[in-house]
Design goal:
The structure holds three protein chains of three kinds. Chain A folds into two domains: 203 residues, no CATH class; 243 residues, MetI-like fold (Orthogonal Bundle). Chain A is built from 19 helices and two strands. Chain A has a two-stranded antiparallel sheet. In chain A, strand 1 and strand 2 form a beta hairpin. In chain A, helix 4 packs across helix 7 and helix 11 packs across helix 14. Chain B folds into two domains: 138 residues, no CATH class; 222 residues, MetI-like fold (Orthogonal Bundle), CATH 1.10.3720. Chain B is extended. Chain C has one domain: Rossmann fold (3-Layer(aba) Sandwich). The longest helix of chain C is centred in the middle third of the chain and has 14 residues. The chains are: A mainly alpha, B mainly alpha, C alpha/beta. The interface between A and B is large, with 93 and 87 residues.
């Protein structure tokens, strides 16, 4: 029974429950809804929620747990010497899953009957060919253990699905019956429903925590595996990045971190003066018309996806810098460089710096400006000596936020910075960053047990830690600053 | 207060500007100029970016076609002669190619167009490699046309297309191993004879992607559909969850450690680099939960988690903007807290919530990095099924398609990537305009 | 703090400092000030009184062109400082404001040290040639603002850490430090408690020895206590201008009488 039908069936039960519950409540009051404790809809709602919510919760938990349980069962079927042979259990399991899927597909397309799929043996049939004929490509010939495991896997899965469907539907029916039996004119339906709704609201708001936990857990667990395979010391202090999938990789963080920080530095060198001066000009000098035109235009820059900036770096800025600066100056021949990525990222950050600074500059009270003008200061003197010092903590916070954004930015550096991990000072040389390498190590077919793939999780964790630290620091500074004027 | 030592400054006329004030005014002017320069830099960057994308990408919306009559020989296409599509399918595209080459050659001779310097092999290279496949698809769909001579419109090769768009010139062809000047001159003559025409390219918007050798056939259909599916997932998940979370935090949450933790988490999630969400998606949704790679459902889930903070922040702001007097009025009539929120506060906050949601969706639509990690870079030529099964089929996404095309070697893909970017920007522009209109329309000042 | 303590002082021998002639002020389409003529004498305290929104603060801000910072504001008519038109195109408002200082309604010390607050004006106008001269100016200004004894040991402490009354006197010291000729005060005591108010009022009386002081006030008692000349504004018009004693004892215009007896305002 496909998932969607189970869900629809549960919802249908719930809807029936709604109608029944409502009707029973009204009839228990003899048709006079004034003597009901709550409005009739609440009685219906109560039955609906009691039927649907527990059933769907069980469904979700079941879906999460079933794969793990089945996996454990099936793993037992695989002899140890197979595991020794291919080196990794997870590789065999993915074979098992692929064969099982292939069999499903074969049954679906009629290439095999249900019976055949269950009984098929490697001794009699060439599974690989059978599956290939329906478009499932297998890398190797299927060995008997894998096939047996795959068949067991299918059997368990279909049994599991059947039991799940039954359990969920029975639970929904039980919930319906229970809530229906409690429906009576004195039943406090509204309070019950509101309590249920409140817990749904609370559940929704915990998603934020769950996401953070998910991020941290997923990266910490894989990073731990990585450090089992590759020494942490060499990762954090290594100055060479030479991954090789045959083993013997050098996976040093430092060249990546250097590239990241160098590009971030150049980006800030572009974004901070331009953003800050734009904000000052818009807040202190620009007339209403100028503000009305220039401000939205600067803000449009913030709405442009980073892939577009990446493309801009790739097809326009990179070649331009190479042809007019790098080559004439003899500094390099690469169109992707620290400079390319840095400048384009700087452009991306302009609106970020300027709108944050604008908020912060506007938070400086007008009375301070008046005080300064009243003493005969010019506007620029007021800005430089009164407003900026007063707004400084906030602006520092804004710059830190921008830096964190730059460190975590991916597409611009993937398309503009290059892939060579070098420790160099030449800004026209191609360098690479932490994010580029995360993408590089995790895209395409990857084997999640090799240090070359797992290193991406360690990189991700490093990135997460750096940006989180910067953000917390920045928010702390900005908050302190806000309090000063409240 | 009798300090006679005060150095009384000499009385000066107001009309005479002192040197010092002149100097100060000059520095004022300078400062102002810096500000203006900064604005100019920002605006120029925007203009340059738009010009760069549009000038590179506008031509992707036009495509060059070759129109010639083709005789669909029965002996080649349906050797059995029973018009059974299943049997005709055995003839691969390689069986169709010579047919086209022959037709083209004959037609040129018939029209008296000189093939000077162009071998029959070169002539075939002027037609897209996609063309035989197109003809084959047409024949399989209408078996009865076999044996007739049908006027076919076929994609011209990428270099020929580039020549008519100004990307390829006679000079550049000298250095290009894929095209010769003689081919371009022939194309010129064919255009004069009305055999070659460049016009609007619907296939770019509706068609599937094409392989590395056929930039002229590459389209955005699957990517647009994939992005659309993901937006549906995001909308269906992020809007209710975001609104529910905001209602709880804004209206019901007590001040305690639990709610503090939620608040801190939300503000931090808003600043987590997007690629980290990609790692989360890869580790949790694909490796742990076993969802398929490249599927819109996974992309949608990842983007939902990314969009949630945006929607929650916007929703809370618009809930907060509803004055307490409204809540008091409802409570004062004996409504429960829940009723006052759902009957009064939420409807009043709806326009703000909607605006925030649209902006969140626009952000999600342009997001690329996390999608790379969950396998959306894969080459997909099959359109996904209709939802809900389609959510689990492999697709691409608009921004990922842009990235994908930039990674290919043929320079014609730069045009495609820029064209795809234009499509992406048009969608974003449309969404943001909608948000602005909604805000203008329904914004309420209390 | 008792009520109408009228100060009888000879004021007629003082020379003319500011002469306003037919001044009109418009905020966009609103006609905020209508044909005001006022003569402000040197070494005299002139008080502007009137109900809220009568334009007295607006007019005050015309005297050092603080209204320039507001885009929609337009001033016509003549305002002469020592016979020179302050709205003349050759006049730089920056230079003008060095001569016509201003103290605001709410104490607004900069978020800097006490020393930096006071030395801000002399620094930007280049009034000191070296550090010791600057120190001297700061000390003298703080003494004039009757604040020196309270803050001399903590000149590097932030100005925002002082009490409200001290902050306002710091702002007065800051304004005095540029050696202005005229000192404009926009309701300088409205945010202060009675004791701080009394201190500031005493200070204003002392400042009169060196400067021409113009004070906008809400409180008629304050005007009577500190000023020698009083101008009564109503709905953007200057209703009556004369010696403080005469305005309070023998107003010529019935509107003035209604205001000082508390019937309008």
């Amino acid at each position: 029974m496909p998932l969607i039908w189970i869900i629809l069936a549960v919802l249908a039960l719930g809807a029936a429950g709604y109608v029944l519950g409502r009707k029973r409540a009204v009839s228990s009051a003899g048709g006079d809804i004034r003597i009901l404790h709550s409005l009739p809809n609440y009685y219906g709602m109560n039955v609906f929620l009691t039927a649907v919510v527990p059933a769907l919760l069980v469904l979700v938990v079941w879906l999460l747990v079933q794969p793990t349980v089945i996996q454990r069962q099936v793993t037992q079927l695989i002899p140890d010497n197979d595991i020794m042979e291919s080196g990794e259990l997870s590789l065999i399991m993915s074979d098992v899953r692929r064969v099982a899927d292939g069999l499903d597909r074969a049954v679906e397309q009629g290439a095999l009957s249900r019976e055949e799929a269950r009984m098929i043996r490697t001794e009699f049939t060439n599974i690989r060919e059978t599956l290939a004929s329906i478009g499932v490509a297998l890398g190797d010939d299927v060995n008997a253990d894998v096939l047996a495991a795959a068949q067991r896997y299918r059997a368990l899965q279909s049994a599991g699905n059947t039991v799940m469907a039954a359990a969920v539907l029975i639970l929904a029916a039980l919930g319906l019956g229970y809530a229906y039996s409690r429906t009576h004119k004195d039943f406090r339906a509204r309070n019950t429903v509101e309590r249920a709704v409140l817990s749904i609201l609370i559940l929704a708001s915990t998603i934020a925590i769950l996401t953070t936990v998910g991020i941290v857990l997923s990266m910490v667990l894989e990073t731990r595996d990585f450090f089992h395979l590759y020494p942490a010391r060499e990762f954090f202090f290594g100055t060479e990045w030479i991954p090789s999938f045959e083993g013997g990789s050098h996976l040093g963080l430092l060249p990546l971190l250097w590239g990241t920080l160098y590009i971030t530095f150049i980006a800030l060198l572009v974004a901070v003066p331009v953003g800050l001066f734009s904000a000052i000009y818009l807040a202190e000098y620009a007339g209403r018309r100028m503000r009305g035109i220039a401000k939205p235009m600067i803000e449009v820059l913030a709405g442009i996806p980073t892939i577009v900036y990446g493309l801009f770096a790739l097809i326009t800025v990179g070649p331009m810098l190479r042809d007019y600066f790098a080559e004439p100056l003899g500094l390099g021949t690469s169109s992707s460089s620290v400079m390319t990525a840095g400048i384009v990222m700087g452009i991306m950050l302009i609106p970020f710096v300027s709108s944050l600074s604008d908020d912060i500059i506007n938070a400086v009270p007008q009375s301070l400006r008046d005080g300064s003008y009243g003493l005969g200061a010019t506007q620029s003197e007021t800005v430089k000596q009164v407003i900026l010092p007063a707004a400084l903590p906030g602006i520092v916070g804004a710059i830190l936020l921008a830096a964190s954004r730059a460190i975590g930015e991916t597409m611009i550096v993937v398309m503009g910075a290059g892939a060579a991990a070098t420790l160099s000072l030449n800004p026209f040389e191609a360098m690479t960053t932490v994010t580029v390498k995360i993408v590089g190590q995790l895209t395409g077919d990857t084997d999640f047990s090799s240090p070359e793939a797992l290193v991406a999780f360690a990189l991700g964790l490093t990135l997460f830690a750096i940006t989180l630290g910067l953000n917390i620091l920045a928010l702390y500074i900005v908050r302190k600053y806000r309090e000063q004027y409240e | 207060m009798t300090d006679a030592s005060t150095p009384v400054p000499p009385k000066s006329s107001l009309y005479a500007t002192s040197d010092r004030v002149k100097r100060r005014n000059r520095s004022e002017t300078r400062f102002r100029a810096y500000g203006f320069a900064a604005i100019t830099v920002g605006v120029l960057a925007l203009i340059l970016l738009v010009i760069s994308i549009v000038s590179n990408g506008a031509s992707a919306f036009r495509q060059t076609y070759i129109t010639i009559p083709v005789e669909l020989t029965e002996a080649r296409l349906d050797p059995a002669g029973n018009r059974d599509p299943a049997e005709m399918a055995r003839v691969t595209t390689f069986g169709y190619a010579p047919l086209l080459a022959q037709a083209l050659q004959q037609h040129l001779q018939g029209q008296g167009i000189s093939m000077e310097g162009v071998t029959p092999r070169d002539l075939m290279a002027m037609i897209s490699q996609e063309a035989p496949a197109q003809v084959r698809a047409l024949v399989l769909a209408n078996p009865e046309i076999v044996g007739q001579t049908v006027t076919m419109e076929m994609l011209a090769g990428g270099r020929i297309d580039g020549y008519f768009k100004g990307r390829v010139t006679l000079e550049s062809a000298e250095r290009d191993s894929n095209v010769s000047p003689a081919q371009l001159l022939l194309a010129e003559r064919m255009a004069e004879a009305g055999l070659i025409e460049t016009r609007f390219n619907w296939a770019f918007i509706t068609g599937p992607d094409a392989s590395d050798q056929r930039p002229e056939a590459a389209g955005l259909g699957i990517a647009i559909l994939g992005s659309f599916y993901m937006m549906i997932v995001v909308l269906v998940l992020a809007l209710p969850i975001g609104v529910a979370a905001s209602i709880y935090l804004e209206e019901f949450a007590p001040q305690n450690r639990f709610t503090d933790a939620i608040e801190v988490n939300i503000s931090n999630l808003a600043a987590v680099p997007s690629i980290v969400f990609g790692i989360l998606g890869l580790a949790i949704f694909i490796n742990f939960a076993g969802l398929p790679q490249s599927a819109p459902i996974v992309g949608g889930l990842v983007l939902t988690l990314m969009t949630l903070p945006t929607i929650i922040i916007a929703t809370r702001a618009s809930l907060r903007a509803v004055p307490p007097s409204i809540r008091d009025a409802a409570l004062g009539l004996g409504a429960s807290k829940m009723q006052s929120v759902f009957h009064h506060v939420l409807p009043l906050a709806a326009p703000g919530i909607l605006t925030g949601t649209i902006i969140g969706l626009a952000q999600a639509l342009g997001e690329t990095a996390p999608l790379l990690l969950i396998g959306m870079v894969a080459f997909v030529r099959e359109f996904p099924d209709a939802p809900p099964e389609g959510f689990f089929d492999p697709t691409s996404a608009l921004p990922v398609q842009v990235y994908n095309w930039t990674q290919r070697s043929d320079p014609a893909f730069v045009e495609r990537a820029s064209g795809a970017t234009i499509v992406l920007l048009v969608f974003l522009l449309f969404m943001n305009a909608m948000a602005v209109i909604l805000r203008r329309r329904f914004e309420r000042r209390w | 703090m008792n009520d109408m303590r009228l100060v009888e002082r000879a004021v007629d021998d003082k020379e003319l400092k500011i002469a306003a002639d037919g001044v009109d002020v418009f905020y966009g389409d609103t006609h905020a000030i209508k044909a005001v003529d006022v003569n402000i004498l040197d070494k005299t305290v002139t008080a502007f009184i009137g109900p809220s929104g009568c334009g007295k603060s607006t007019f005050l801000r015309c005297l050092n062109r603080m209204n320039d910072t507001i885009d929609v504001c337009r001033v016509t008519g003549n305002i002469l400082l020592d016979g020179e038109d302050i709205y003349h195109p050759k006049v730089d408002p920056v230079q003008l404001r060095a001569k016509v200082g201003m103290v605001f309604q709410k104490p607004n010390p900069f978020p800097k040290s006490i020393y930096d607050n006071v030395s801000y004006g002399p620094r930007i106008h280049g009034l000191a040639r070296n550090k010791s001269e600057l120190d001297e100016i700061v000390e003298k200004s703080l003494r004039r603002a009757a604040l020196w004894d309270e803050v001399k040991d903590r000149l590097t402490a932030p100005g925002t850490g002082l009490s409200g009354g001290q902050q306002q006197r710091l702002c007065i010291a800051r304004a005095v430090a540029t050696s202005p000729e005229v000192l404009l005060m926009d309701e300088p005591c409205s945010a202060l408690d009675p004791i701080a108010t009394a201190q500031v009022e005493e200070l204003i009386d002392e400042l009169r020895e060196r400067f021409s002081v113009v004070i906008v006030t809400h409180s008629m008692q304050q005007a009577a206590r500190v000023s020698q000349k009083t101008a009564f504004f109503h709905l953007g018009e200057l209703v009556e201008f004369g010696d403080t004693s005469q305005i309070f004892t023998n107003p010529k215009d019935p509107r003035t009488e209604s205001y000082i007896t508390g019937r309008i305002g």
